[in-house]
Amino acid sequence: MNDFTNYIRDIPNFPIQGITFKDITPLLGDGTAFNAAIEVFAEKYESESIDTIIGIDARGFIVAAALALRLGVGFVPIRKSGKLPFECYEVTYDLEYGRDTLAIHKDAFPEGSRVLICDDVLATGGTLAASIELVQKLGGNIIGIALLIELKELEGRKKIENQPIFSLVEF
Ligand code: AMP
Questions:
Q1: In the predicted model, is pLDDT for residue 12 greater than 80?
Q2: Which of 48, 92, 108, 111 is deepest in the core (most CB within 10 A)?
Q3: Contact 164/144 with Cβ under 8 angstroms?
């Protein structure tokens, strides 16, 4: 399978007026499509000696956890502020719709770890930029950034120059 666009649904004006939400539930709900998407990432990163896969709250967890199992490595969550129970580093950032703070446990992975960051959608890039900052606070070595969807028009990559971003589908 190489066309995943049929499994991504546009929801106009969600969660607020003016945003076209990219709904990935059709992709996740189809075993063949979901497996094929994870397999594309697995083939790309299996020879990269990844130590840890990081998922961004909340849909990034789905991709990251599936890929971590497939590659036989650990999973680390980056979560919204106030959700993680241990000591955290935090970064506040602007979203396509609103403002938020992300957090990571201070002991999430050892300094110098080879990490792969996963999320569902790259939109304006604020979420990913904040996540990169958190990973860098811990001294992580970012080997890859794997996304299901990149919304090119929003130019999120401009906020995250010189990072190895790979997106499965571009719109
Ligand atoms: P941004 O910080 O603007 O790149 O937004 C990225 C985060 O917000 C991702 O974690 C997505 O889950 C979510 N998001 C932003 N825009 C959309 C969209 N149009 N459709 C689906 N999710 C989105």
A1: yes
A2: 108
A3: yes
CB 33 within 8 A of CB 2: no
Does ligand 1 lie within 6 Å of residue 125's CB atom? yes
What are the residue numbers of the active site?
Answer: 59, 96
The pair of three-digit structure tokens given for residue 162, joined into one six-digit string: 């010189």
Tokens of 82: 């106030």
- Smallest CA-to-CA distance from 114 within 44, 156, 54 is with 54
* Report field, pTM of the whole predicted structure over 0.85: yes
Find how far residue 27's CA is from the centre of its chain.
Answer: 16
Query: Domains plus CATH for the chain?
Result: 49-170 (3.40.50.2020)
What is the residue-averaged pLDDT of the chain? 96
pLDDT at 94: 81
Residue with tokens 């990432």: 41
Instruction: State the maximum Cα–Cα separation within the chain, in Å, rounded to a whole number.
Output: 43
Instruction: Report the separation in Å between the CA atom of 166 and the middle of ligand 1, taken as the mean of its atom positions.
Output: 16
CA-nearest residue for atom 10, ligand 1, is: 121
Q: Token digits for 97?
A: 């719709």
DSSP annotation of 125: S
Tokens representing 123 are: 């939109």
